[in-house]
Amino acid sequence: MFSVRVPGLKYPVFLRAKTSDIEVFCQIMVHAELDFPPPEEVRYIVDAGANIGLSSIFMALKFPGAVIDAVEVADANIPVLRKNTAFYPQINIYPMGLWFRSAKLKIINPEAEPWAFIVEETDDADPFGISTIGVDDIIKMRGAERIDILKVDIEGGERDLFQCADWIKHVRCLAIELHDHIKPGCHQAVDDAVRRRIFDYQRCGEYHIYSFR
To answer: How many CA atoms lie within 13 A of 110 on its CB side?
Structure first.
């Protein structure tokens, strides 16, 4: 692990050498793919697939008044996520998966790069199962009326997340990476969900941005 100083950041960020952390750093901190026009008055952000925390930090700096819940499913990423976000009290870490219902997940490709872990549901009795939280549940837990920005980068898990998406009515802006090359049907599931709302669309690097009216 090594530290990097970023112009504009008071604290360093920590990356793991010879891993996909470098590519995540370039995507978020160099190319600023999350620097899209925001909705007004951003108070609550959910970062699903927070990885090592760079996206949460970027949004914490952009929206200093917002509370950010960083949800990350992979145990391997949690120590770096905690280390990177330790200086940002508005970022809360949830070591679990964001899902459409309460369930247990397992990582089916543990040998993959840290940004590419793929999950699927497993039996509730699986001792290695990872707990999930639903979008409605995290809103209730936070006591919020809505999610101002929902960032989703969950390596194909979005296909399942959006197949039961009544919760979309509580989201003001969705920033999502789509992974049809991992799980065919991701784009279709998201399209079917967002079609229930009137929205403006733009592309920012790998992210598809839906701003709901």
So the answer is: 6
Helix, strand, or coil here: 164?
Answer: coil
The b-or-e profile of 175-194 (16+ CB within 10 A means b, else e) is bbbbbeeebeebbebbeebb
Give the span between the Cα atoms of 71 and 69, in whole angstroms: 6
Q: Phi, psi at residue 28, to the nearest 5°?
A: -90, -50
Model's pTM, two decimal places?
0.92
- Tell me the two tokens of residue 202: 């733009």
Residue 82 has phi, psi (to 5 degrees) of: -65, -40
Q: What is the side-by-side strand order in the sheet with 207-212?
A: 91-94, 67-71, 44-48, 149-152, 173-176, 207-212, 199-204
Matching residue, tokens 């998201």: 190
SS3 202: strand
Residue 76 burial (10 A CB sphere; 0-12, 13-18, 19+): middle
- Give the 3-state secondary structure of residue 79: helix
Q: Which of 53, 42, 44 is nearest to 80 (CA)?
A: 53
Euclidean distance between CA atoms 136 and 133, whole angstroms: 8
Interval 107-166: pLDDT, tens: 878 777 656 677 778 877 787 788 888 898 999 989 998 999 999 999 888 998 998 889
DSSP code of residue 39: P
Could you tell me the two tokens for 38?
A: 């925001």
pLDDT tens digits, 61-120: 999 999 999 999 989 999 999 999 999 999 999 999 888 877 788 887 877 765 667 777
